[in-house]
Amino acid sequence: MLAMILAGGQGTRLGKLTRFTAKPAVPFGGRYRIIDFALSNCSNSGVNTVGVVTQYQPLELNAHIQNGASWGLAEKNAGVTVLQPYASSEGEKWFMGTAHAIYQNIAYIDLYSPKYVLILSGDHIYKMDYEAMLAYHKAQHASLTVGVLPVSMQEATRFGIMNTDETNRIIQFEEKPKHPKSNLASMGIYIFNWQTLKKYLTDSYSTDGRMEDFGKDVIPAYLSHNEPTYAYAFHGYWKDVGTIQSLWQANMEFLEPDNPLDIDDRNWRIYSRNDALPPMFVTSTAKVHRSMIVDGCYVAGEVDHSILSQNVKIGTGSVIRDSMIMPNAVIGKNVLIDHAIVGERAIIGDGGQVVGTPDDIAVVGFQEVLGRMEEDD
Amino acid sequence: MRKQDMCAIIDLNEPSEALAPLTDERPVGTMPFAGRYRLVDFPLSAISNADIRTVGIFLPKSSRSVEDHVRSGQAWDMDTITGGVFTFPYVATRDYDDPTNIHRYYDNYLTFLIKSKSEYVFITGARHVSNIDVSALLQFHQASPNPITAVYRSVPTATANPEQEAFVLDADNEVVDFAPSKDVKERVSNHTKPISMQMYLTRTDYLIELLSRVQNSGKFIRLPQLIHQEITTAQANAFEYTGYCATIHDIPSYFQANMDMLDEEKFHSLLFSQRAIYTKNKNEAPTYFAPEADVFSSLLGTGGRVYGKLRDSVLFRNVYVDHDAQVLHSIIMQGSRIGNGADVEYVIMDKGCVVGPDVKLIGTPEAPIVLKKGTTILDQSAAEEVLQS
Q1: What is the ipTM of this complex?
Q2: Of B15, B59, B129, B192, which is most buried with the most CB atoms under 10 A?
């Protein structure tokens, strides 16, 4: 099985955090970037060939993924390939939608002639065994298996909902239904029999070219052609971090020692590309409670219920509370940061204040500079 | 400089008896340091930062930990198409009664040096923890008259270890001999003594010539002694290293060097300079500080969990400090566990140790308690037993 991770999204609702980077490259939990979860799940599930489809601001994503060695994916005749849109004799190949992005990369997938293709999105926080899902797909003799998450009926109105029969076969798909008939929300995770999917895509693009999106176009076509399509329910921690609020919320949940994501589970590790940095230094003026800190950090202030990512500096007299600080941010002296997300490489000058509320999280953007540092003593 | 112009030899055969039991299963070169590193990371990073991509590592008797740590050398960019890490196995001294073994000893060096196609070779060990600029050393060497350059640091006479090897310098600041520091005159200008860091730089063809000459004579002289001899018969340029340096030769010096890293100036000078220190990467989760955690003046690796009190201590990866436990002035290595209410002061705990609830282990700054790898102490009587032995 070969995996295709769709990592082209801009994540517009993450505002200033994704102005210069793609959503899957947004830092999470102190040590990770969002795409690490999908990549690590692939590695842990024995999926060793992964195409990462990028489009929007791919620089950081490229720098992060490199050859995939950080996830153990740099093997011979396998590995991670970053797939970007390109021009060809047929014209430019910008990706118009999720399914169109796969269509544009048929040549890449065919290089490995896989029997199954796993489609993932690069912007969810979860741990999932794709091998178990494949076993289910094979057992059902399915043409398509859709990963679904049981949600509450109220929430169901916000998702694409799969209505199934008693054998879990999907009989109907409804996008954000007003009156949901089921609570099985699509996770944007699909296993397709490659030859069948390829035929649907090539047939479509040689005629009307309407197969742009998996949810809107491909699944309805599969259902109307009676392709055996099954739902595979996932019962674990799963979080879409598409908004500032949900990104902050997921980070705060990550802080809880009994978080169901269980990041300490050594049998299902989440890998990431890490720089070699010195150990974290908690100085004699620091106070740290209910927090997570990683290597390269220098903490001289107070940190309460917050996450500090790699290489973050916190000056003396500063207070960081209920916040998430992204890599390489520098926080001066006597700064107050409360209910906030501070973007990568942001600089908050001495005496600065970034204060949000639980319902309105304050954001300092990627590389944003607020105020200035006084002369170092 | 092209990447092939210089190669390096790291000799990990260094005295380790005084560091037992920490060196029972490892050489000085792979002793854990400052919450994250192994001592060999410092020479490997120094040569990597000088664009050296070819290194010969002469392995000590217990080499498993070296192989496990260095692997392909990828962490230091040594896994390139032109260079690489070349390891040479340990051979017991007694085996050098056999002439074929003597021949092979020199062949190991010669093969490595000839194949490196390098112009210069940097020779070092791992017990002098420092962050040396090898490119600057090369420039100094190229501008100096003698075929060998030796590296020293200035140590105030009052704090110099009397037995440590020092340079005897002539009026032109050239090395003419070696002697224990107590027998070397101090420099009047700053009351310091030039302590040898046992690092040398020379032309590769010069070293090849030197080694071939001894090989043909049939005598057995180890490379470090050979360089010594050569320097005392001719003389060498003396290059002064001015950054942080600690020589790890016994338990107190090892303890002190780790505690030094809690001094911000020393920490930054060694670990946060322009020349980064690289090490094998591990994927650990962030370290969790509980609501009741009480931590200051400490270094911590990732993957840990802290519920108790921590002062003036160095914790490596994946260490748990439980509720009401306190860890003061201690070095706790990877994977160790400190139980509820335990009291640990002036202790060096090797990897994977377990200290049970309410156990008290109190050492002194001069003689910290050392727990050997994997020691489990479940109660106070077990603690007394361990302290007796």
Answers
A1: 0.91
A2: B129
CB-nearest to A288 from B267, B289, B314 is B289
Q: Where are the beta strands (DSSP E) in B142-253?
A: 148-156, 165-169, 174-180, 192-203, 236-240, 245-247
Q: How far is B294 from chain A (nearest CA, A)?
A: 7
For A183-230, what is each residue's pLDDT tens digit?
999 999 999 999 999 999 999 999 987 889 999 999 999 999 999 999
CA distance A124 to A23: 10
Distance (Å, rounded) from C-alpha B243 to C-alpha B354? 36
Q: Which residues of A touch B295 (CB under 8 A)?
A: 282, 286, 288
Residue B109 contacts residue B103 (beta carbons within 8 Å): no
Cross-chain residue pair B296–A282, CB shorter than 8 Å? yes
> Comparing C-alpha atoms, which of B67, B7, B15 is closest to residue B43?
B7
d(CA A211, CA A184): 23
Classified as helix, coil or strand, A371 is: coil
- Chain B residue with Cα closest to A36: B283
CA distances from A191 to A35, A39, A68, A120, B198 (A): 19, 16, 22, 9, 60
Q: What's the pLDDT tens digit per position in A84-125? A: 988 888 777 788 899 999 999 999 999 999 999 999 998 899
**Which chain B residues are within 8 Å of A264, Cβ to Cβ?**
285, 303
Distance (Å, whole) CA B184 – CA B177: 10
Q: Do B301 and A295 touch (CB under 8 A)?
A: yes
Give the tens place of pLDDT for each residue, A15-73: 888 888 889 999 999 999 999 999 999 999 999 999 999 988 889 999 999 999 999 99
Cβ contact (<8 Å) for A286 and B299? no
Size of interface A-B (CB pairs under 8 A): 98
Cα three-residue angle A95-A120-A83, rounded to 5 degrees: 40
* Residue range B222-249, pLDDT digits in tens: 898 999 999 999 899 999 999 999 999 9
Q: Kindly determine whether residue B264 and residue A294, on different chains, have CB atoms separated by under 8 Å.
A: no
Neighbours of B129 (CB within 10 A): 26
In this complex, do A290 and B303 lie within 8 Å of one another by their Cβ atoms? no
Q: What token pair was written down for A346? A: 């942001």
Tokens 């390489």 belong to residue? A328
Interchain CB contact of B278 with A (< 8 Å):
yes
Bridge partners, B300 (sequence order)? A280, B315
Query: With contact defined as beta carbons under 8 Å apart, do B333 and B318 qualify?
Result: no
> Can you list the positions of beta strands (E) in A294-361?
298-299, 302-304, 307-308, 313-314, 319-321, 324-325, 330-331, 336-338, 340-342, 347-348, 353-355
Q: What's the rounded Cα separation, in Å, for the pair A307 and A329?
A: 12
Rounded to an integer, what distance in angstroms lies between the CA atom of residue A46 and that of residue A131?
A: 7
* Token couple for A170: 């999907």
DSSP B91-149: --GGGGGSHHHHHHHHHHHHHHHHHHT-SEEEEE-SSEEE---HHHHHHHHHTSSSSEE
Record: contact A276-B300, CB cut-off 8 A: no
